[in-house]
Amino acid sequence: MNGKFSSILVVFVLIGAALFMFGCTLPNAPVCGNGVCEIGENSLSLPTYCSADCGAQITARDAIAQGLLSVQTGGIFQTQEFLVSSGLAISSNQFSGEGFDPHSILFDKGNFSQMNSSLGSNNESSFIEYIGSETVKSSAKVYCEATGEKLEATLKISQISTDISPTALCGKLDYQPCCMVIMESSVSTPPILSVLVSDSSTKAALGNALVDVTPVVYVVTSQIPRDGNTSTGQSGITDASGLVVFKGLGAGEEYVVNVSAQGFASPTSQKVVLVDGSTYQLNFALDPNPQIGTLKANVSDAVKVCIKAPCGVISDVSLQISEDTNGVATLVTNGVADSNGNYSVDLPAGKIYVALVSAPGYVSATYNGIKIYDGQATAVVMNLNRQKGPANLNVFVYDANTGVPLTYASSRAFVSMLSSSGGTNSLYTNPQGLAEFNGSLAGKYVVSASAQGYVTPPTQTIIINENTTSQMLFKLVKMSVKK
């Protein structure tokens, strides 16, 4: 026995020596992940199988079955990669051989834009179907819990929401375990975001608008959790059609979109969550900034008589500014001029305005057709005329010899006023020999007086001022009687 063992040992020593002499070495163990599909990595039956080096060698159904069996008592399992080809359809009915009831498995398409997932008739089963034409790599994440209620809690903690509640298929207690199979595409299709900008007043497309797309926070889509990495966002300028398109934004993220354009007010930002393979369009209607001009008014007395400037200054001037729309005035603002009669106010440009100006002791005046231009000052000189106060004239008529007033009892006098404009005003004297002319009589007049039996005296000229009562005296000489 010892002799045989010694002989074998000698043989191995001689072989090793020979290999060393001729430069040969024993084969190394395969290394998974070095990019080379080595012997020992190319078969699922081998413990050293490496899908990273040798490609997907397992069917979708078997990979999912492997995941279900691995976590059927509860847990999360990431399957190996597998190939997905046109026409692939997997139903929860296909896993009865592994001991799973069709009610206990719920499929979700995850981030797989070319995958459909739905429930069978009467919620008896769940299935997925690949609707793409090209063969692509995929994998799946399998979640299992004892009941659908617990699975919902697990998905919520993992920030995963689905269109179908696990309890709707698995029930709370009836089917155990309750599993969710979420598909993951190895080839993602980036979302596309289009932003269309227009002028709200004209509805026309607004080109040359700046659009900023900025990620808000890490957000998980309704199908698949991301690794926490977010994109940096993008900016763009709208073309002549008001459109700008963003590609390459990160899926599974929430973005805030802001728009700005020169001459327009920026609208409220909009938020959007982007999902792989989806196309979105946001519409923004921007309001034009109001164009502003300035009205500069100076109000003064229409009669500027003074020794030194400023002349004709009016105090307590009030202005009422209205917009004139086809003859209809709509009040815009009220204001008061300063101590020098100056008034300034900013108004929307491109409109026609009316100014009503007033001051104590003056006749109010209206100024029409005031046009305001964007970024410019429109100067308007406004003059007010003083209100006409009472201007009266009292004319006394006496007998030149006796000094007795010519009255009704004796011989009343007839007094007439002729204005410079040709108007005439006439009265008879009262019992006191007085002719009282009252009213707004300011101006220049030629006054005459006559009485029966008296020589008519020469006319007199007088200037009557406002807020005064002027007086005039006529002495009439009696006519002599011929014998």
Mind explaining what this structure looks like?
The chain is mainly beta and 483 residues long. The chain folds into 4 domains: 51-185, no CATH class; 192-288, Immunoglobulin-like; 292-386, Immunoglobulin-like; 391-478, Immunoglobulins (Immunoglobulin-like). The protein has 5 helices and 32 strands. The strands form 8 sheets. Strands 1, 2, 4, 7 and 8 form a 5-stranded mixed sheet that branches. Strands 12-9-16-14 form a 4-stranded mixed sheet, with no helix packed on it. The protein has a 4-stranded antiparallel sheet with strand order 11-10-13-15, with no helix packed on it. It is rod-shaped. 26% of the residues are buried. Residues 8-13, 17-26 and 218-230 have low confidence and may be disordered.
What descriptive keywords fit this protein?
rod-shaped, five-stranded mixed sheet, 32 strands, Immunoglobulin-like, 483 residues, 4 domains, mainly beta, 42% strand, four-stranded mixed sheet, 5 helices
